[in-house]
């Protein structure tokens, strides 16, 4: 009987495998290679455009990515990796690459004053010029069929010089135009400001050449109404240095500081990006004026994260145990009310607390003033500001722990509590001997992740205190309530001139600190549970 069924099954499978392909399947097979070829050509074109933009290493990276993708999804040899490739590629692009790129910036002087490459800075300085104001010539633009003619007006309203017909296309390179003397040639009415704006890019590429007898020389575009001669501020030298024409001083590239610098130490801005090695990292240790605030901020970051986890866990677990009491009336109402801080978006709660803690108009100070006659300066006093941060963060974090503990309490066998009751144990003994040990073990990994989250809790600091009050007399502005991530943000984007290199070095340090502390915590908890 079973053999007959198996034979029928094999026969049905064989018949099914011999079914002719549907029209859709035939169309997909026919379009497979044309679409693959088109995708390859598009990928190669993208790589070429990246390389043409001067980003050679980015082009190499894109080419490697596309080559791996086509190898995996087109060749039969890469079939086993088709399901792994998206995950591996995503991990490399969104995790490994940002980390490596950030670490690389930490070894440079990259900042708002050193944004460009050396070549770009050289080109910027060589492009600096000044117009000879007494020789500036107003101009008008006139249509000439499908082309245009440019007329220089000179000192009166009559054209003095006109150009041959110009196409005015944005060619991306300088175009030399020989001007001709105006001899009552008929010209169309001058174009208005709107048309001049439309042709502005093409006009900027024009170099108007006048006869030597005019005394004007070569004219360049100066604005929507003017052409005129210019004088360059800098001259390039064969050895890569630049000469300032106004006084003849020579500025050479200093590849240690990232600036063009003269022999007497004068530097020119902007600077260029250079590799400075471990300078940003040694600054955290060797620079006393930087080390003091940095170590204080690091210590406060660890204390803030640890106290938040401990207090939120204690309160959340206590409330979960109380709500698990069967004889408690209105448990659903209490559970709903205690869950509300987690239901409200965090940034809204933070802004509400910012108003409640206001020294002059906040409700908290109004209550304290009515009861005890005090109005604490929550935002001005460092200790009170840190206390306020802990209060708000614990308020935001305890509902999450409470929900987790409520679920874990359901998994504890009731027999343990019955045996404990027979032995005469009280509620505190049950909590410390049964409930806490059985809940804390499965909760431990989540507490580690909560510690890592609070270690980088940027939103709370930015919205509530913005890191203030500040330390006094520091090289780089730093706040007493800053944690490392908000301090890094301030260095990179706010008060200290956007020092991206130093911020990247601190970010890399934060990554390794969080990773190391997480591994240590996991090892200790694993040992405790074993």
Percentage beta strand: 5-15%
Total helices: the number is 18
Strand order of the largest sheet: 5-7-8-9-2-3-4-6
Tally the beta strands.
15
Protein name: Maltose/maltodextrin transport system permease protein
InterPro entries: MalF_N, MalF_P2, MalF_P2_sf, MetI-like, MetI-like_sf
Transmembrane segments: 29-50, 56-74, 81-101, 297-325, 337-357, 388-409, 443-464, 500-522
Membrane topology: Multi-pass membrane protein
Write the layout of secondary structure elements.
Elements: H1 2-17, H2 23-52, H3 56-74, H4 85-105, H5 118-126, E1 129-131, E2 137-144, E3 147-152, E4 161-162, E5 175-178, E6 180-181, H6 193-198, H7 200-204, E7 206-209, E8 218-223, E9 226-228, E10 230-232, E11 234-236, E12 242-244, E13 250-254, E14 259-262, E15 267-268, H8 279-286, H9 288-323, H10 331-343, H11 346-356, H12 363-372, H13 382-409, H14 414-422, H15 427-455, H16 458-464, H17 484-493, H18 500-529
Parallel strand pairs: 5-7
Antiparallel strand pairs: 1-10, 2-3, 2-9, 3-4, 4-6, 7-8, 8-9, 11-12, 12-13, 13-14, 14-15
Helix pairs in contact: 2-3, 4-18, 8-9, 9-13, 9-15, 10-13, 11-16, 13-15, 15-18, 17-18
Defining traits:
about 525 residues; alpha+beta; about 55% helix; sugar transport; 5-stranded antiparallel sheet
Give a quick summary of the entry.
This protein is α+β, with helices and mostly antiparallel strands.
What does this structure look like?
This protein is α+β, with helices and mostly antiparallel strands and 530 residues long. The chain has three domains: 118-123 and 235-268, no CATH class; 129-232, Beta Barrel (Periplasmic binding protein-like II), CATH 2.40.430.10; 283-529, MetI-like fold (Orthogonal Bundle), CATH 1.10.3720.10. Helices cover 56% and strands 11% of the residues. It contains 18 helices and 15 strands. It has an eight-stranded mixed sheet. The chain has a five-stranded antiparallel sheet with strand order 11-12-13-14-15, covered by helices on one side. A two-stranded antiparallel sheet has the order 1-10. Strand 13 (250-254) and strand 14 form a beta hairpin. Helix 4 (85-105) crosses helix 18 (500-529). The chain is elongated, with a radius of gyration of 36 Å. The two termini are 54 Å apart.
